[in-house]
Amino acid sequence: MDNFFSLVVYHGGYFVNNLRGYEGGIKTVFDKCDPEKWSKIEIDCMVRELGYALISRLWFRVPGISIEDGGLQQINSDAMLMTELVPGYGKIEVFVEHIVEEPIINSDFEDVDDDYNGNVDDDHHVEEDEVVDVDEDDDLYDRYTNMMDDEIPDQNANNSDADNSDADSSDADNSDDDSWDSGLTESESESDSNNAEVKANADVESSVGVYGRRLRVESRRPTFPIFRPVARAKDIRFELGMLFTSTNQFKEAMTKYAVEGGWGIRCFKNPRMTAKFLAKKLVGRVKDQPDIKLRSIQKKVRKKYVTHISQSKAYRAKAKAMDILEGSHIEQYNMLWDYCEELRRSNPGSTVLMKVQSFNEGEMEAEDVSQIRDPVFQRLYVCFEACKTGFKNACRPFIGLDACHLKGPYGGQLIVAVGRDPNEEYFPLAFAVVEAETYDSWTWFLKLLDADVGENRRMTYMSDQQKGLVQCFETAFPTQEHRSCCRHMYNNLKRRHPGILIKELFWRAAQATYIQEFEKVMSELKEVDVGAHKWLEEHPFKTWTRSKFTGNAKSDALLNNMCECFNSKIIEAREKPIISLVEDIRLYLMRRFQYNREGILKIQSELCPKIRKKVFKLKQGSNKWEVAWAGELLFEVKDFFESFTVDLNEKSCTCQRWKLTGIPCSHAITCIHYNKEEVDNYVDDCYKVPAYKKCYEKMILPINGTTMWAKTGLPPVKPPHLRRPPGRPKKNRVREPDEPKAGTKLGRTGTTKKCKKCGRLGHNKRSCKGEVGGNSKLPQARGEKRKMRKVIL
């Protein structure tokens, strides 16, 4: 009983101010409406009972929102949304929008004083003095007589001279509480008339006049059962002649019923368990768990619906569910112009450039879009103002470059540029979505990046030897320092020259900080493997060994792991449409900036946390050196036959480590302690807390939703054409050189092969070219039968 609600119907009036007001008409209240038995057909029947055979549309007001504020929503086939809004309010207001023609009504107005005041209370019946004949078979009249009284606001309480000309009217005089009762009661019916007429002469006053009307009901209430939507599929019940509000409701109910009960219902072009049906069921789960596995979807469907689905169908269902949540890929490509404009508006100073092309007119930049009839997406570059300012103010001129594949239906690659903040953590600087890793795409990206953060600074770039990138630095940026990631470099080396000793010598050569040590290690490598030594000489030493690095970057990094760390944070985003991809990156950067701004406030020391730990380890390794003071701030440190010169005034050591990093080496720390000074005073300012605060000082600002984006009016961007890579498509991913081919089988690496043909080691039977051994059997001539010996035991 507590779930019942009241339906307030406003009818006989008209809308004004573009659905911002409803003038005139009558208000009728239907009490005790059951939400479990509610449907669009139920509302239509109530409207017909009011005497309107034809109407234009029905509207309902969302509780809590007035009509003036746009609270009206049209009632469509699904009327259950109305009942979901009832809790907390107890009633729903419905407004009838009439067509040009008036309802079928026999008007029989009675003279009523315009100043008469009357209000309707909450009783269930309105008594009539005069009742006309009603068809005894018309059950619609019985329903009509149980309606709530109309509630009319008190507008003329000051006028007490109510001259009612209806002599047969019941007690309609104003009472002390300015209210009156009016309603319809059950009357005696006679069968001599085919039409049921009710003479309603109750005095009703509205803003447009007095309504007293004789209703003639020409249709009867349908006797067919009406389908009531239920929350659980197992509660669905079908009856003969049941009415549905739409074909979609019937299909959805039948699908749920068949899947829930496991019924083999045959239908034309209506599979019982489709990807579209599953997508609707998976929306909530995919929203909470975007990385849900396909096997998990199959298992849950089999457990709940006792139905087996293929992995392909589970994949398509998950993809459709993601489209419902985030929109399809094509829709987001079409919205790119508006999205780029919103990014520029919300984050002033940010660089957001999109390059499109037209196969009719050739490639054109975003500034020439007015000349492109059908723009096709090619590239998108984003660099936020907060990232640019933070890098210029506090970061060292060191940038790591990397690219990763996008996993959407249109492919492409995501290029990222990552710096290093004062705490030796990655600082995302800029990113771009491009068609592929080519010389042209890398040149385009690096020129935009240099325009944003270069400012004629000498930069140091590190990469993984991507396609086209090495050539780009040689031709477009010859003056910039370029390093290669030593991990990727060694992976290429060990394909041809494997071995633990070669690995050890390679890393010793890469980590050598001065020339003499580097040359010594290379000589040892040449004695072990000449081919490995020659392979390393083919690569410029300045790109992979610390002994050839300049101290401009204040970093001795040999690995491009900062980019790898950032790529690991956006693995899920790489599967999403392009706007969702950029939004995930933007939200991640916005939260990261705020987290770092708040976290640095807890640090009390002068140095950043990771730098302080690094200095502490260097202090522990400085106790083995003996100091000899030469005078002023010049020192010599020794350990048996090793000796280095330290100049505290120039902040240098002959081991070159202090110059490369900006952090005193263990030799310098020994001298600083000997001079009774603090090591923190000799650490470069780029590693201190004030620099860290400047790095994350600016905020990445939030943006509005899609409904509030400014419309650029530019033609929608189409998705890029699928780019097929050259060669035969690969089924398996590229494995690391030392990665086993099968995780469940032990490889034969390191074992010695023995030929079964000649019995020698180092080769197998297939590649054997030697003579046959004495114990081997001679080949048998063709056609000769083998002679069998009889052995008697």
Description of the molecule:
Residues 754-769 form the CCHC-type domain. This is SWIM-type domain-containing protein. Residues 720-733, 751-767, 784-793 have a biased composition (Basic residues). Residues 644-676 form the SWIM-type domain. With 793 residues, this protein is α+β, with helices and mostly antiparallel strands. Among the domains are: 5-97, Roll (Ubiquitin-like (UB roll)); 233-327, no CATH class; 332-484 and 561-583, Nucleotidyltransferase, domain 5 (2-Layer Sandwich); 486-548, no CATH class; 607-687, no CATH class. The protein has an eight-stranded mixed beta sheet with strand order 10-9-11-14-13-12-15-16, sandwiched between helices. A five-stranded mixed beta sheet has the order 2-1-5-3-4, with no helix packed on it. A four-stranded antiparallel beta sheet has the order 17-18-19-20. It is elongated and about 110 Å long. Residues 100-222, 361-367, 774-782 and 787-793 have low confidence and may be disordered.
Q: Give the % helix.
A: 25-40%
Tally of contiguous helical segments: 22
- Radius of gyration, in Å, reads 42 Å
Helices and strands: which structural class? alpha+beta
Give the strand order, joined by hyphens, for the main sheet. 10-9-11-14-13-12-15-16
Oligomerization state of this entry?
single chain
Strand content: 15-25%
Tell how many strands the DSSP assignment holds: 20
Biased composition (Basic residues): 720-733, 751-767, 784-793
Protein name: SWIM-type domain-containing protein
Region (Disordered): 110-137, 149-201, 713-793
GO molecular function: nucleic acid binding; zinc ion binding
